[in-house]
């Protein structure tokens, strides 16, 4: 009888201790918020024409990123506003075309898969990967684009700009 009581007490203590242990710590992801300017000498657009200027302003709230991009190539300046979330499918208009995106975390990288149509109404898939340097001052965005004509990988390296004085 005494052995049963000892075993029962041990099991009770084990269960109470297990129940009180904290759950796995919440995973924290880097905050990409900030104003980012492309560094042409560190970026590679492959066969695509490299823009003269790209400024990207990111406002991140948890697993949702709002991305405002201003891009100048020659005499042409364009802007794009997009929102991406890991919680749901995002619908945006990119380069005057409807796009559907799904975002997820790959370790510390924020990854966005986008499906859309090219200007010639052909399927286009884009995977954008946002990687932040350890010091938080360099943002590298790698885009892998797949169309019926082939695929390409572009890399844009941006430095964080100081805002204000």
Which second-level CATH architecture applies? Beta Barrel
As for the number of domains, it is 1
What is the fold-level CATH name, i.e. the topology? Lipocalin
Q: Give average pLDDT, whole number.
A: 87
Order of helices and strands: HEEEEEEEEEE
CATH class bucket: Mainly Beta
Structural notes for this entry:
With 165 residues, the protein is mainly beta. Strands 4-3-2-1-10-9-8-7-6-5 form a 10-stranded antiparallel sheet, with no helix packed on it. The N and C termini lie far apart (77 Å). The protein is globular, with a radius of gyration of 23 Å. The protein has one domain: Calycin beta-barrel core domain (Lipocalin, Beta Barrel), CATH 2.40.128. The chain has 1 helix and 10 strands, in the order αββββββββββ. The model is unreliable at 5-21 (pLDDT under 50).
Q: What's the topology here?
A:
Blueprint: H1 2-20, E1 34-38, E2 53-61, E3 64-73, E4 76-85, E5 90-94, E6 97-106, E7 109-117, E8 123-132, E9 138-147, E10 150-161
Index terms:
mainly beta, Lipocalin, single chain, 55% strand, 165 residues, ten-stranded antiparallel sheet
Q: Summarize this, please?
A:
The protein is mostly beta strands. It has 1 helix and 10 strands; from the N terminus they run H-E-E-E-E-E-E-E-E-E-E.
